[in-house]
Amino acid sequence: EEDLLNDVCREVVEKWSESQIVDAKEKKEDEIQAIASMMEKQAKIVVKPKEISQEEKQRKAALLAQYANVTDEEEYPFPDPVKTHTLPALNSLPALFRNTNVEDVLNARKLERELLRDEFQKKKEQDKLQREKDKLAKQERKEKEKKRTQKGERKR
User: Fold this and answer.
1) If we measure between CA atoms, which residue out of 93, 71, 73 comes closest to residue 81?
2) Which residues in the chain show pLDDT less than 70?
3) Which residues contact 90 (CB under 8 A, 6 or more apart)?
4) How is residue 85 annotated by DSSP?
5) How far apart are CA 96 and CA 66, in angstroms?
6) Which of 1, 23, 98, 130 is the most exposed place for a label (fewest CB within 10 A)?
7) pTM for the whole thing?
């Protein structure tokens, strides 16, 4: 019976191994199928070319022509950052467009300083009012204390 038992065990292990191999093959086939379907979907995606109007084409051509005429010897339409640190220098340049970044930053700083100045002024006024209130409250306390002491002395 031991031989029969060994044969049965061996047969069970062989069947189990075969089923594992079949499952692995099926998984690989499923993965391959999934990849193939993804590739097909990607292949179906078509990017439509953007339609550009005649006006946009002309505008683009004009811009390119403007920049094509600038040479290395000519001053580029942008100011040299080393030369220009002030606002009037920006306005004197004959540029194609005006770079307002510096102006915007300076205006923002100026506005921020003004806001801080206003806040400081308000705080200063509030502190002054608070000191006056404290002073009045202190005087009132002194007067009340004085009245109390006078009342106490009258009782004696």
Assistant:
1) 93
2) 1, 46-47, 69-95, 156
3) 79, 84, 98, 99, 102, 103
4) -
5) 9
6) 1
7) 0.32
Write out pLDDT tens, residues 52-75. 888 888 988 988 888 876 554 555
Instruction: Please list the helix, strand and coil fractions of the chain in percent, rounded to the nearest 5, in that order.
Output: 75, 0, 25
Q: Which residue has the tokens 């004009």?
A: 62
CA dist 76 → 1, 42, 66, 96 (Å): 101, 46, 12, 10
What CA–CA distance (Å, rounded) separates 62 from 57? 9
The token pair that represents 137 in the structure block: 């409250």
**What pLDDT shows up at residue 70?**
59
The span from the CA of 72 to the CA of 68, in Å, is 11
Q: Computed from CA positions of residues 5, 8, 12, 17, in that sequence, does the dihedral angle turn out positive or negative?
A: positive
Structure tokens, 111: 């506005």
Residue 10 DSSP code: H
Q: Are 92 and 103 within 8 A, CB to CB? A: no
Residues near 83 by Cβ (< 8 Å), separated by ≥ 6?
Answer: 89
Residue type, 66: Q
First and final C-alpha spacing in the chain: 127
